[in-house]
Amino acid sequence: MATADKVREYALITFIKPARNRGDKTVTFTATDIHKGMALQERFPLVCSAIDTDKFLEYASVNLVIREGPKQSSTVRWVFDLT
Q1: Which of 34, 41, 67, 83 gives the lowest tally of CB atoms within 10 Å of its CB?
Q2: Maximum CA extent, the chain
Q3: Cα torsion for 56, 62, 66, 67, to the nearest 10°?
């Protein structure tokens, strides 16, 4: 499995599914959340690229509400609609 696919899977399992299970309407996470959680080293561009794709939206069955921050940075924050 490619690292980008692992990033998408991690986001789904760690953030999306638990939020859905709680009945949340939205979920928010950052590139740093993923980077630290996966123990990656200097891979913020990869994390951002993996989450910023239509492939992630389809894979996780979410809609992007807002994306804040630079193109590829530790400070990128996503908010997704789970409904």
Answers
A1: 41
A2: 34
A3: -20
Q: Tell me how far apart the alpha carbons of residues 81 and 64 are, in angstroms, rounded to a whole number.
A: 6
pLDDT for res 59: 98
pLDDT in tens, the chain (83 residues): 789 999 999 999 999 999 999 999 999 999 999 999 999 999 999 999 999 999 999 999 999 999 999 999 999 999 999 98
Distance from C-alpha of 13 to C-alpha of 15, rounded to nearest angstrom: 6
The sign one gets for the Cα dihedral 20, 24, 26, 32 is negative
Q: Strands 26-30 and 63-68: what pairing?
A: unpaired
Among 29, 44, 36, 46, smallest CA distance to 74 is for: 44
